């Protein structure tokens, strides 16, 4: 009875090897080589199992997914290649390409110094890349304060802006970053005048998308359409999918 509750090294198996190790002279049990290896293998297997099953991070990204797949971002997908499992889907209220490029034209127009009419133009290639932007204003090097901005004047043509201003279409073409502009399209707020139509045709632009044609019956607009039709330049009125695009710098 006394030996059973005392030091185990004093028991009747003091000199016999234990089931998992070998008794040392000090009475401590040392693990045998095979027992140690078995223990390490068991631990490694446990760790491997944990790595496969435990989610990594709050968005539950995984390193192994069976039987599904793992997307490029590491989010598990179902085996049918459908929507990512447990992921956030894309937003659906993004603007269309046409609204985007017309919006760029309108934003460019805000740079115009013209007090009565602000017009912007945006040139886009076949890969939906912007290749030119312009707005109406006086030529480079000509002071905005030295020339008239009036639409009409008792002094005649030379005292109006029309003798000096460069239209948005012209500036967009001259500011382009590629040459030529073959098969590009132009987004502009107002239907181009006959002078801009000549530049558009000569530059290689094949599509004109405009928002307003309020001067439709003016002679210069009639001439513009005639030129476009003969040259094979397509033109169409833009119908926005959204009525307003807001730029809020405070949301950054």
TrEMBL record:
Ranges of Low complexity composition bias in the record: 32-50
Location of the CMP/dCMP-type deaminase domain: 96-235
Keywords on record: Hydrolase, Metal-binding, Nucleotide biosynthesis, Zinc
Record field: transmembrane: none
Composition skew (Basic and acidic residues), residue ranges: 51-62
Single GO biological process annotation from the record: nucleotide biosynthetic process
First-tier enzyme category under EC: hydrolase
InterPro entries: APOBEC/CMP_deaminase_Zn-bd (IPR016192), CMP_dCMP_dom (IPR002125), Cytidine_deaminase-like (IPR016193), dCMP_deaminase-rel (IPR015517), Deoxycytidylate_deaminase_dom (IPR035105)
GO molecular function terms noted in the UniProt entry: dCMP deaminase activity; zinc ion binding
GO cellular component, one term: cytoplasm
Cofactor: Zn(2+)
Biased composition, class Polar residues, residue ranges: 21-31, 63-82
Gene3D superfamilies: Cytidine Deaminase, domain 2
Its EC number(s): 3.5.4.12
Region span, Disordered: 1-89
Pfam families in the record: dCMP_cyt_deam_1
Family: Belongs to the cytidine and deoxycytidylate deaminase family.
Name the record gives this protein: dCMP deaminase
